[in-house]
Structure formats: structure tokens, C-alpha cells
Amino acid sequence: MANSVTMDELVSLCKRRGFIFQSSEIYGGLTSAWDYGPLGVELKNNIRDFWWREMTQLHDNIVGLDAAILMHPRVWEASGHVENFTDPLVDCKKCRQRFREDQIPDENRASRICPECGGELTEARQFNLMFKTHIGPVEDEASIVYLRPETAQGIYVNFKNVVQSSRVKIPFGIAQIGKAFRNEITTKNFIFRTCEFEQMEMQFFIKPSEDGQWFERWKEERMSYYGRLGVRPAKLQFHQHGPDELAHYAKIAFDIQYEFPFGWRELEGIHNRTDFDLRRHGEFSGKDLNYLDEESHERYIPYVIETSAGLTRTVLTVLSDAYEEEEVENEEKRVVLHFHPKLAPVTVGVFPLVKKDGLAEIAQDIEKELRQDYTTFYDQGGAIGRRYRRQDEIGTPYCVTVDYQTKEDKTVTLRFRDSMQQVRLPAAELSNRIRDEIKKYTRKAG
Ligand code: GAP
Questions:
Q1: Which of 258, 373, 387, 395 sits at a 20 to 30 Å CA gap from 248?
Q2: pLDDT tens for residues 233-246?
Q3: DSSP 8-state code for residue 347
Q4: Which residues have CB under 8 Å from 213's CB, separation 6+?
Q5: For ligand 1, mutation pick of 245, 308, 317, 318 (most atoms within 8 Å of CB)
Q6: pLDDT, tens digit, 9 for 90 and up, residues 29-67
Q7: How much of the chain is in helix, strand and coil states, percent to nearest 5?
């Protein structure tokens, strides 16, 4: 049994089964952008919906927002991104490769020697990661706008709108999911670091004196969320940012890291952003962004604890974590994706044992019924074992098979992806049984 996957295996499965394709592949592809295929978009949407429910609907003090990607350019001056959102860039004078200076080995940084070809490296220059474009027909300084590099600023600039229009009282949060863009210098490892990606961010507004306790609460809450998402706890760890790693807005920051096939890397950031953003927006816009506490009559600029997860990076996490190659008794290996049933692109596969003798029609009726509650897939082609394998490979947790006994007593078999065990039950009980199974699902350790 092997449940560590290589990136090559994952990229190949994703392409073969329609999860993820390279952007503009027929033109040779764009290395830093990826397209989500029929199964990929279902997986991504399911992760998005899971996060949204966890971070808004299951809390009585977190509301949602969907701000525009394009914002007033002053937003990015106030937020510090125009000045500080930079990476140190070095070029090799010989092979012309470009690197982020903070990502090359210490010895190469010290000796100024290229880690790839041994050529001489240039001095580092700061490179701003924001994509610039122009709004309107005239491309001049006055028409510059940026593609947002984080969704968070849309929340800060709407802080007053939300406080005035909803019944929220501190402590409360505003959550948002959306695209973000960064002109990354190095984009490798598939969808891990791309120029266009999606973030799921929540800004939690609190009394400044309570930042320590809320920071700890959100750290624990966010780590336990990944367990509920079906990610194995042994593959997750915290990493505290040292002084050199802290973003310009953060007082304290912890990453939740996942052990990807290429090592431990950041999956989500939890930041104490203090009153940095609201204070700066107050200064730059001239608007009063203080909060009036109606009980204590105190006025203050709230502190913010931010939880910032990558949606597309979570897709990679869930795929890497789910992948397993198993030796199956009397058979060759099977590739199986152990997705949590709530995330699986297809929840139930429905098959007739054979196409003839009316079994296909019965199976189609069952599939149509289950379609009301679940994402289903009907398949009548090929040997039944092969049909199970195809569903295992895309992570379908349940398969229903209609056979000759179904004609006699209206029972079917329900097969479980992880254990490959089957139970027989009346077709009329399928929907409820699957609902119960989803509720009690736990990912086996490994
Ligand atoms: N608002 C805070 C913020 O943006 P960040 O640590 O720069 O913090 C948060 O980013 C998360 O966004 C990361 O943990 C990662 O999951 C995701 N992310 C950042 N840059 C990314 C990129 N180039 N490609 C894919 N995901 C990215």
C-alpha cells in the first residue's frame, strides 16, 4: 500500500480523469495558470461550499461578502501593498533563469552562484507582485488599477457598510471567497503557486485587548477544520513566522502547513493584523472607521484576526491527501482517492450488473431518484469490477448495483469505496442510508 503520491502521478491522474488541465494547452500552455475540468470544478466547488458553511452559516457572528476584484488604486497604497508587496528577484547572468532570492539555498545566496548552472547571479531587486492594468480607454497613470493580490482589502473597505447595514457587534467576522492575482516569479508544483488563484478569507474584528485569546481560538478552530474536511492530522502542522517572514501588516502569524509531495508548505495563514488596515484606510480615505461599543461606550479601531486559506491550494492538498495506490487481492493495484464524501465530485455511482433483461431501466430509475439528493453517475459499460475501479479513481464513495435479485425483491447492493465491502438493502432505503454514511464518515489514518 502506498499513500504518498508523486506530483507526476497526480498531474497525470488530474489530466486523465478531467480534474485539472493546463491553461491554453493547445497553444503550448501557460505555466502559471490552470483550468478546472468537469470533476475538478465539482471538487473545488464542494471545498468552497464546505468552507463557506463552516465559516459563515455555522457561526452566528460571521457574515459574508463578495467584493469586486477591481478596487480604487488608493486601497493598495493604504494597505501597504504598493510599497511592500515585493519579492527579491535575482537573475542568472549565464542561464538567464530567474529566482526568488529568499528561495535559493543559503550558500548560493552568499556566494551569488546560480543553483542551476553555477553562473553568476545579479544583485537582488525588489519586484512588486501586483498585476497592473488600466480602466477605461486611456492608458495613463490616472487610469491604473490593480488585480487584487488578496481578498481581505474588500472586507476592510466595507467594514463600515457592514456595521451600519447588519446587526453585527464586535466580536464578529466577515468572510469572503474569490479570485486573487499575484505576478509570482516562480510558479511550479502544479496548482500550488499560480498567478491566478482563489482565496477563502475571514477577517474577525475584535477589541484590541482581546487579540491574544482570539488568535489562539482561531488557530485551533482552523486546524480542526482540516480534520472535518477529511485531511489526515499527521500531515498538518503549525509553523510560526519568524521576524523575517512576517508580512508588513502582521504582528504574529502562524501558517498551517501540509506535507505536500514536495515537502511541508503553507496551506493557510492565520494573522494578527492589529488595527493596521482599518487605521490606514481611515487615514487615507479621511473616513472615521472607529467602532462605537454601545455597551461600554468605548470608541476604538478594532483589531483583526485573519484566517486566510487558498481554495486552489486546498484542492491540491485534498488531492494529495486522498491519493492511494493499493494492492487488491487477486487483482492488480487500484488507485483510489479517499475524498471525504462531502467533497467527492460524484457521490453515488449507479450500475446495472448487465444492460439486458430490464436491469438498465431499473438502475436508471434509481439514479434519477438519487439525483435529487446527490451528485450521481450512471454507467452500464464494461465489467462491473472495472466500473468500480473507475469510480475509485475519481473518489466516488458509494456505488449501487442493480442485479437479478433486484427484479425479485427490489434490493440492491451498496458498495463502499474505502473498504470495498458491500451490503444489500432495499432500493427505497438508499437515500437515507447514504445520508447516514456521509454523516458518520471518518478518514482512516495512514
Ligand atoms: N490576506 C492574507 C494573505 O493573502 P498569504 O499568506 O499571502 O496571506 C494566504 O496568502 C493563502 O493564499 C496562502 O496560505 C495560500 O493558501 C494562498 N496563496 C497565496 N499565494 C498563492 C499563489 N500564488 N497561488 C496559490 N495560492 C496562493
A1: 258
A2: 999 999 999 998 99
A3: S
A4: none
A5: 308
A6: 988 899 999 999 999 999 999 999 999 999 999 999 999
A7: 35, 30, 35
How remote is the CA of residue 269 from the centroid of ligand 1, in Å?
8
Secondary element (H or E) of residue 221: helix 211-228
Q: Which of 81, 185, 197, 256 to mutate to test the pocket of ligand 1 (most atoms within 8 A of CB)?
A: 197
Q: Are 430 and 347 in contact (CB under 8 A)?
A: no
Read off the pLDDT of residues 266-317 as tens digits, 9 standing for 90 and up. Answer: 999 999 999 999 999 999 999 999 999 988 899 999 999 999 999 999 999 9
What would the DSSP string read from start to end of 123-177?
Answer: PPEEEE--EEEESSS--SGGGEEEE-S-SHHHHHTTHHHHHHHS---SSEEEEEE
Cα–Cα distance for residue pair 279/286, rounded to 1 Å: 10
Q: Using CA positions, which residue lies closest to atom 18 of ligand 1?
A: 310
Q: Which residues' Cβ are closer than 6 Å to ligand 1?
A: 150, 152, 182, 184, 193-194, 197, 199, 201, 266-269, 306, 308-310, 312-313
Taken in order 187, 191, 193, 196, the sign of the CA dihedral is positive
Q: For residue 2, is pLDDT > 60?
A: no
How many A from CA of 309 to the centre of ligand 1? 7
What is the value of pTM for the model shown? 0.95
Of all protein residues, the one whose alpha carbon is nearest to atom 12 of ligand 1 is 310
Give the Å distance between the CA of 291 and the centre of ligand 1.
29
Residue 97 CA to ligand 1 centre (angstroms): 24
Strand, helix or coil for residue 53: helix
Cα 350 to Cα 339, 340, 344, 373, 386: the distances in Å are 18, 19, 15, 14, 13
Rg (CA), the chain: 25
Compute the mean pLDDT over every residue in the chain, rounded to the nearest whole number.
95
Strand partners, 425: 412
Side-chain-facing half-sphere of 53: CA atoms under 13 Å: 11
Per-residue pLDDT of 380-417, as tens digits, reads: 999 999 999 999 999 999 999 999 999 999 999 999 99
Peptide bond into 233 cis (omega under 30): no
* Residue with CA closest to ligand 1 atom 16: 310
- Output the pLDDT for position 103: 85
